[in-house]
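Supplementary Methods S3. Complex input for the glutamine-bound model.
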Amino acid sequence: MPKYIFVTGGVVSSVGKGITVASIGTILKSHQIAVSVQKLDPYLNVDPGTMSPYQHGEVFVTQDGAETDLDLGNYERFIDISLTAESNVTSGQIYSAVIDKERRGDFLGGTIQVVPHVTGEIKERFRRLAAKSQAEVLIIEVGGTVGDIEGQPFLEAIRQMRNDVGRDNVLYIHVTFLPYLTSTQELKTKPTQHSVNELRRIGIQPDIIVCRSDYPISEAIRDKISLFCDVERQAVIPLPTVDTIYEVPLVLEEEGLGRLVIDKLGRKTGKTDLSHWQELVRQIKSPLEPVNIALVGKYVELQDAYFSVREALYHAALQHNRCINLLWVRSEDLEGDGSDTLLQSAQGIIVPGGFGVRGIEGMIKAADYARKNGIPYLGLCLGMQVMVIEFACHVLGLNEPNSTEFCASTAYPVIDLLPEQKAIENKGGTMRLGDYPCQLVNGSRAASAYKENLVNERHRHRYEFNNQFRTRLEEAGMVYSGLSPDGKLVEICELADHPWMVGCQFHPEFKSRPGRPHPLFLGFIGVAKETLWEGAQPSLPLSP
Ligand code: GLN
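Predicted complex, serialized as structure tokens:
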């Protein structure tokens, strides 16, 4: 039977509970323990796929095509595992499953209640992940903050688990925040005490408290939390803000979290090895020459909307011994005259995924600028579609070509709805989602980046390259460097007459890992780092 670690959050949200969970996974894995992770999201949407990135940040896509919370991306990157749909559970899924069962008559004669029916359905999801993953330890993160109305059934379910599977098989970790008062120059523990009280009120006594803070946490503060929250002194783990998220596993391990968790779960501690993480953090913190990359998107005010893209850029740059100087460009800001200056210092331009017409003109201008100035370009899903529209317009000379997503009546629909999408009416979970194979074409830039013939990549789109235009665009200089194995779908395209302009219909960013960057990002940064931007001087050799 697996062991369960339940992680709750207190005081405020956005203090890095997801990164803490991912880091616990990293540590346990380094102790040779097989882990899997699940995120419980208390909102009523069935999944985040229908939410605006402004509401939710990035939608992460698993290999089996689930649209999930961006924390799953952090779990995959930190633990280096591939998760499935079972790893993200929302209230929407739970309630619709319970109501479906009720309509089917599964509970005939009964009154359907939060306890036991809703909590029972939640616990069923824990068991499903346990069965599917075969992990020894399941780490389950309860989204939101203790005290939220929507979170109550989840907290009740994790409380019940202690009796269901036995107290030696569950562990409760509470991640809180210690605010700093400038007037008295001290960290305050009272909000933590209150949130632990709130947990106790519903029957959960945390075993470990992880204290996030922007300031160093003194021994006296640890003593106080230990006393007031009734947690062992060594189980109050300080987690001050660090320079890079990849340092968190090292800080937690240094504070003895791994040993503590393993002891409490009654496991033996084996030899642990986090040397590759130490090396990664050492490299991130060393002085590295930056590569200027402009990210042109419509949601740049909320950088979490591009979480995986940003991480994939960092991973690739590190492999080239560089860091990324990321220039966030709002695509609408490129729509005015003279706005090219926003791209002037870019050594590479990336146009990530997106939906809807707002900002498309600006993205097309970014593709135009990259093509004309020989600036490396990487288009991700929408970024590839934009690259095709720009090329059809300015190189082929078609009159206002477009995607039918943005102009249904265009005379030149170079990007059009996938045939299997035409009859679909529901918006939720109905795109072309998850892993699909892509055959690479020998001699292309994409093939030389991948060094493989057949790859699987994660998708999330309704529209695709329109084959009616294949020949004409090819004759004008577009190369189809990746195709579906039956040859019917263009998965990757690039420009013959350009240093490196590549667009892909999928999202390579989801597969990048620290220390194992995605080949397309690696190829892109490899060319970008050698690109001189307008006004830049070539760097001088460091040794005579
Ligand atoms: N909106 C485009 C489509 O549906 C692109 C989607 C994306 O970038 N993920 O095809």
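DSSP finds 17 helices and 23 strands in the chain. The pocket of glutamine is lined by residues 353-355, 381-382, 405, 460-463 (CB under 6 Å).
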